[in-house]
């Protein structure tokens, strides 16, 4: 899973696994095992398939907004 965080706390996620829209994500850790936002909770608000160079599905991308935690 690849993650990036915007300045307003939104998560941008790329994953090989399906996740449910409106699902909650918590306890997200960086490569050192530290929480990226203390007590952060995000809700998935958008989802779309990732397409590879041959037009084949190559995973999924998501956008999640922070709804709790240190923002």
Explained architecture:
The chain has 71 residues and is mainly beta. The protein has one domain (2-68). It contains no helices and five strands. The chain has a five-stranded antiparallel β-sheet, with no helix packed on it. The protein is globular and about 40 Å long.
Descriptive terms for the model:
globular, 5-stranded antiparallel β-sheet, mainly beta
The low-confidence parts are none
Q: Count of DSSP E strands?
A: 5
Please state how the strands of the largest beta sheet are arranged side by side. 1-2-5-4-3
Radius of gyration: 13 Å
Measure the end-to-end span: 22 Å
Counting helices, strands and paired strands, the structural category is: mainly beta
Helices and strands, in order, run as EEEEE
> Helical residue percent?
under 10%
Bulk shape: globular
């Amino acid at each position: 899973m690849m993650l990036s965080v915007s300045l307003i706390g939104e998560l941008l996620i790329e994953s090989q696994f399906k996740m449910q829209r409106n699902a909650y994500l918590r306890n997200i850790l960086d490569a050192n095992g530290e929480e990226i936002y203390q007590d952060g909770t995000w809700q998935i608000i958008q989802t779309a398939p990732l397409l590879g160079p041959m037009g084949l599905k190559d995973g999924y991308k998501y956008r999640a907004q922070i709804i709790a935690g240190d923002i």
